[in-house]
Design goal:
Elements lengths: L3 E2 L3 E8 L5 H11 L18 H6 L6 E7 L2 E7 L7 H7 L5 E7 L6 H12 L3 E7 L8 H14 L4 H4 L3 E5 L4 E3 L10 H10 L4 E2 L6 E10 L3 E10 L1 E2 L4 E8 L2 E8 L2 E6 L2 E4 L3 E2 L3 E5 L9 E3 L17 E6 L15 H14 L4 E4 L5 E6 L2 H13 L4 E3 L3 E2 L2 E2 L5 E13 L3 H10 L3 E7 L4 E9 H4 L2 H8 L5 E11 L11 E4 L3 E2 L2 H6 L4 E3 L6 E2 L3 E6 L5 E3 L29 H7 L4 E5 L4 E5 L4 H18 L1
Parallel strand pairs: 2-4, 2-5, 5-6, 6-7, 30-35
Antiparallel strand pairs: 1-9, 3-4, 7-8, 10-11, 10-19, 11-18, 12-17, 13-14, 13-19, 15-16, 15-18, 20-22, 20-23, 20-24, 21-22, 23-36, 25-26, 26-28, 26-29, 27-28, 30-34, 31-33, 32-34, 34-37, 36-37
């Protein structure tokens, strides 16, 4: 049996905190290695191909690409930087032998930097630290290297890992350099360092075939496509394979046949006749393959160690829309449609869980955070689904002594000096403990907190308004710790429509002093729909459909133009943050509405159970 390394291959992941420039650096690498023709028009952030990724400016799904450099094939995986999509990072690290850890030359290590680095070190990966955005004003690259070293030590890295190679880069300008004194010309120094420092994959080519499925793709022509790295042996089209999965009752083995074999080349896949240990491949024909399944030689059905994915911390209830406007705007509206779509999602979204409830029309969906769940809701509404969702709730646990635990987050906030007071006050009200406060260059201050996840639910919109859009808030799951008691969320009540019809300018103008409206004249409304935020701390019922009574008498001033305050239109995320326990967000392909719950018997029972358990906790 020959165990050797495939010196012609390198498998690397790019990991970093959100907005530290991963995808932009991948752009620079792909452009320089000849992925595009010289006259080809190339968009920015090429790898962010999903419409929501382009709109939000973040990476949501991990993606594979490949390039050739100095007779070496390099497989590169771009991973998300937002904590809510950490499951994508966790499953990708099994496919690679090394990682580029990007750190912003001004901001330094941030919460997600700690998370992805911890996972990379646990996986035993060789890490190259890329100090990115060195061309930023006030950049402090040498200090950031010291901070990264402290982080390696804090995370328990061994001596070899602490002696990490580093390089300076600007993904946007398209250059890398080994010292700050060098002139930045192109990305070549980084390409060379990848070949020098990232180990070639171990390749036991003569052993029986074995591969762990790390992600799934889908083609209208080929059906399901499984993606992973070959750990041992070889594979080619038409090969018979065994599909092995660890289940609660033991190990299940099914037979399958490889239809087509693909390798990753540039931004796409190319068909291949054979692949061997060390290659990252995509196989079609394995219809029953799921993430975490093992594909192996039929005579040696041995399952590989499954993926280790962190548990969800936040849940929501998705249910069939039962508002007066139900079925008017959506294409898929039944419980069967919604159930099938949710269970299809968990096949590829490994950090998400779906459970049936006592009601056939309601499903409990659990994920890593509000953003994780809202991306799914937005995807579903774009696909034509109509549904309603409840307020996000944290998932509570009990320890071995029966003590109630809840998830806590590590929060880093960068704000201008003027807003430090209001941020500390608001975080304190939400049971946040301040752990550190440091002044940054440019008049900014960095605040670090530990806070129950419940305290962050609904805080993002408030934070943006308090800091006039100048603050940056990032957070990541820390651990489960003792329950911290009641946390007050929304302070103000709502404005609720008293009847169904269309909002009238006259009525909105008359009610202007009652609060802030979410609707504009001409918006269809129904009884029980939340049309605005009250100026008081209680709910008010208002008639936004009331028209002016007409007479045949003319009075001075009666024809003056109406003055209506522009409405505050809520996005999906803002709606989820705004609602209380007795409200729902109605989501359709055309509209996002908030409404008071219509409690049927099952919902009432569930609410009673939840309130009872909360009361017991408080006691």
């Amino acid at each position: 049996m020959t165990i050797r390394r495939r010196e012609d291959i390198r498998n690397i992941a790019i990991i970093a905190h959100v907005d530290h420039g991963k995808t932009t650096l991948v752009d620079a690498i792909l452009k320089q290695t000849g992925t595009f023709r010289e006259n080809q028009k190339v968009e920015e952030r090429i790898m962010d191909s999903n419409p929501q990724e382009k709109e939000r400016g973040i990476t949501i799904f991990a993606k594979n690409a490949g390039y050739n450099y100095k007779n070496h094939k390099v497989n590169i995986v771009d991973t998300p930087g937002h904590a809510d999509f950490g499951g994508e990072v966790e499953r990708i690290l099994k496919m690679v032998d090394g990682a580029l850890l990007l750190v912003d030359a001004l901001e330094g290590p941030m919460p997600q930097t700690k998370f992805v680095l911890r996972r990379a070190l646990e996986a035993g990966l060789k890490v190259i630290v890329v100090i990115n955005k060195v061309d930023r004003p006030n950049a402090r690259p040498m200090q950031v290297i010291d901070e990264v070293l402290d982080l390696f030590i804090h995370l328990g890295a061994n001596d070899e890992q602490i002696d990490f190679p580093y390089i300076f880069a600007s993904g946007k300008a398209g250059y890398a350099k080994r010292t700050l004194e060098e002139e930045g010309k192109d990305i070549t120094p980084l390409l060379d360092m990848i070949l020098e420092k990232i180990p070639a994959p171990e390749a036991d080519i003569d052993a029986p075939f074995q591969m762990l499925v790390n992600s799934l793709d889908y083609s209208d022509y080929l059906g399901k496509i499984v993606v992973g790295r070959i750990m041992k042996g070889k594979v080619k089209p038409t090969d018979q394979v065994a599909l092995v999965e660890k289940t609660a009752s033991g190990v299940s083995v099914k037979k399958a046949k490889v239809a087509k074999l693909f390798l990753f080349e540039k931004l796409g896949k190319v068909e291949a006749t054979e692949a061997s240990a060390g290659d990252i491949v995509a196989l079609s024909g394995i219809e029953e393959g799921n993430i975490g399944s093992t594909l192996c030689h039929p005579d040696f059905p041995i399952a590989l160690e499954p993926l280790s994915i962190t548990e969800p911390t936040v849940s929501m209830f998705f249910s069939v829309n039962n508002s007066p406007f139900a079925g008017k705007e959506g294409k898929f509206v039944t419980s069967r449609n919604i159930r099938d779509r949710l269970y299809k999602e968990v096949i590829t979204n490994v950090a998400m869980k779906v459970e049936d409830t006592d009601s056939a029309d309601t499903f409990k969906v659990s994920g890593r955070g509000e953003l994780h769940l809202s991306v799914l809701i937005e995807t579903m509404r774009r696909e034509g689904f109509e549904l309603q969702v409840s307020r996000p709730e944290v998932i509570l646990k009990r320890d071995e002594n029966g003590k109630l635990l809840e998830p806590y987050e590590s929060v880093t906030i960068d704000v201008p000096q003027d807003f430090v007071g209001i941020v500390i006050e608001k975080m304190g009200k939400r049971k946040g403990d301040m752990k550190n406060m440091v002044s940054l260059e440019g008049g900014m201050t960095r605040l670090e907190f530990e806070i129950p996840t419940r305290g962050l639910l609904g805080f993002q919109s408030e934070f943006v308004m308090d800091t006039k859009g100048e603050g940056i808030l990032t957070h990541i799951f820390k651990s489960y710790e003792p329950y911290k008691g009641e946390i007050n969320s929304r302070q103000l009540g709502t404005l609720i429509s008293a009847e169904s019809g269309e909002a009238v300018p006259y009525a909105l103008a008359q009610l202007d002093d009652r609060g802030v409206f979410f609707i504009e004249p001409g918006t269809p409304v129904y009884e029980g729909m939340v049309v605005g935020e009250s100026a008081r701390d209680f709910d008010m019922t208002v008639n936004v459909c009331k028209t002016k009574k007409l007479t045949n008498m003319r009075a001075s001033g009666s024809d003056e133009a109406l003055k209506i305050t522009p409405p505050r239109k809520l996005t999906l995320e803002q709606s989820l943050e705004f609602i209380n326990d007795d409200e729902l967000v109605e989501v359709t392909p055309k509209s996002i509405r908030i409404r008071k719950k219509i409690l049927d018997e099952t919902t009432r029972n569930r609410e009673a159970k939840r309130k009872k358990s909360t009361a017991e906790v408080e006691a």
